[in-house]
């Protein structure tokens, strides 16, 4: 059925019509190194134990609305301070949306450095807020002069800071984030999606800043299929943000699977250690290739710049060789000619390197 254009124009907000839906490419038969996933599956014994756990789940009943057992398991595994609360979301995306909904009013601003996680801008638009992006400097660090000017001019209701940053992979200077916490008029959300691959965190600083919230996810730990994120912060903030949460947002299978997986967190932690080791090897191998500028990473991916004007060409050449990575070259600015590869298994990393060498 064709919907008349004038009806769509009349009822769909213009800022929504201007958006493009979040696109996830079909990898086909490619080696999938584009989505920052943990490439490792569980050992067979753990899969069998998990399936036994699922036999006890009652699908005819609504889940625990507060996901209490899962929260307590997350609190222990992630060493959440005892006086801080946890709020769960269907992925960290839902939590970003809940934060924005809680503070949204016409004319209010969401602020973030750019480039960074695309959902900060998209969700701000979805909830009717203004979005201000502040360009990073040439080393992918926060431009503190520009950030200070933007904070003063726009008085943002919320500032999002990915730590490590996506898609650049680096950590912002902790002193710079603390300076922002001291001057920001509203909330500052430090998004620690890639916490398994770095030793840096702002969790311990939650007691020191009353406008700080920390966002985490289990996706990068190897549980991306669960779609489970957590927001950590003072009960006063989370109690208000929780009012935007739809009922039963964490389903019974996610609750049971998440609680089970975190009882065996040592398996996930060992996988993260392997990825860190493989990241170092992949980084070193990329640095040996001629014509590439390779950037340091505290995440499970590596950003690199190819010779000028060759980003799309090399992305296509890799895909023809059945290796799918992320093409960021079209974004321009500090991402001009940049590609991003997720750290895979050693054999996947080697296949990527062979394909890249051939394409270069």
3D structure, described in words:
The structure is a single chain. This protein has 360 residues and is α/β, with parallel strands linked by helices. It has helices spanning 5-11, 14-17, 44-54, 68-77, 91-103, 118-126, 144-154, 174-183, 235-241, 252-263, 265-287, 311-320, 346-359, and strands at residues 31-32, 85-89, 109-114, 130-135, 158-162, 187-191, 212-217, 229-233, 293-294, 301-305, 323-324, 326-327, 338-342. It folds into two domains: 5-43 and 266-359, Aspartate Aminotransferase, domain 1 (Alpha-Beta Complex); 56-264, Type I PLP-dependent aspartate aminotransferase-like (Major domain) (Aspartate Aminotransferase, domain 2, 3-Layer(aba) Sandwich). It contains 13 helices and 13 strands. The strands form three sheets. Strands 2-8-7-6-5-3-4 form a seven-stranded mixed β-sheet, sandwiched between helices. It starts with a helix and ends with a helix.
């Amino acid at each position: 059925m064709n919907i008349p254009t004038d009806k769509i124009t009349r009822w769909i907000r213009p800022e929504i019509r201007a958006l493009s839906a979040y696109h996830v490419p079909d990898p086909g038969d490619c080696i999938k190194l584009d989505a920052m996933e943990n490439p490792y599956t569980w050992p067979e014994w753990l899969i069998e134990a998990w399936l036994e756990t699922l036999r006890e789940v009652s699908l005819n009943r609504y889940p625990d609305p507060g996901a209490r057992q899962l929260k307590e398991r997350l609190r222990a595994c992630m060493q959440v301070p005892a006086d801080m609360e946890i709020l769960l979301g269907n992925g960290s995306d839902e939590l970003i949306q809940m934060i924005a909904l809680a503070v949204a009013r016409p004319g209010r601003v969401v602020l973030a450095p750019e480039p960074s996680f695309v959902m900060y801008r998209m969700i701000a638009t979805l909830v009717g807020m203004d979005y201000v992006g502040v360009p990073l400097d040439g080393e992918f660090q926060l431009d503190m002069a520009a950030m200070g000017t933007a904070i003063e001019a726009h008085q943002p209701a919320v500032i999002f800071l990915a730590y490590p940053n996506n898609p650049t992979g680096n950590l912002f200077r902790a002193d710079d984030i603390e300076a922002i916490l001291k001057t920001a008029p509203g909330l500052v959300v430090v998004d620690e999606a890639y916490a398994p691959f770095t030793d840096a965190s702002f969790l311990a600083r939650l007691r020191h800043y009353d406008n700080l919230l920390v966002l985490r996810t289990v996706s990068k730990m190897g549980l991306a299929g669960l779609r489970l994120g957590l927001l950590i912060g003072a009960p006063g903030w989370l109690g208000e943000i929780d009012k935007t949460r739809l009922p039963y947002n964490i389903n019974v299978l996610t609750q049971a699977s998440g609680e089970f997986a975190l009882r065996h967190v040592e398996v996930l932690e060992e996988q993260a250690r392997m990825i860190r080791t493989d990241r170092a090897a992949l980084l070193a191998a990329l640095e040996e290739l001629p014509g590439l500028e390779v950037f340091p990473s505290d995440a499970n991916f590596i950003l690199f710049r190819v010779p000028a004007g060759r980003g799309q060409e090399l992305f296509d050449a890799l895909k023809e060789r059945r290796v799918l990575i992320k093409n960021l070259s079209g974004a321009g600015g500090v991402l001009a000619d940049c590609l991003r590869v997720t750290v895979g298994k050693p054999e996947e990393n080697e296949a990527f390197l062979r394909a890249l060498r051939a394409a270069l």
